[in-house]
Design goal:
The chain is an all-alpha fold. It has one domain (about 1-75). Helix content is about 65%, strand content about 0%. Helix 1 (about 1-15) packs parallel to helix 2 (about 30-35) and helix 3 runs antiparallel to helix 4 (about 50-60). The longest helix has 13 residues, at about 65-75. This is Large ribosomal subunit protein bL12 C-terminal domain-containing protein.
């Protein structure tokens, strides 16, 4: 179940709102790497705007607040 959710999250993060891919698909990447591949999210994290990054992750991936917060926290620990 968790692996399927991760794949779904990665796929959602890699898609632009228009439905076009921003990055090439790569199933070996971790969810954090997929998160950092999205330019808007990466920029928000680099500027220290965690709340904005969480909001963007939720919009792109269609996941809940807790899951988005956990992803952003893992990304900031890298």
């Amino acid at each position: 179940m968790i692996a399927r959710q991760k794949r779904k999250t990665i796929a959602a993060l890699e898609r632009a709102p228009s439905g076009q891919r921003e990055v090439a698909p790569d199933t070996a990447r971790s969810d954090v790497e997929a998160l950092l591949a999205v330019p808007d999210i990466r920029d928000a994290l680099q500027k220290g705007r965690k709340v904005e990054a969480i909001r963007l992750v939720r919009e792109r991936a269609g996941i809940g607040l807790k899951e988005a917060k956990e992803l952003v926290e893992r990304a900031t620990r890298r």
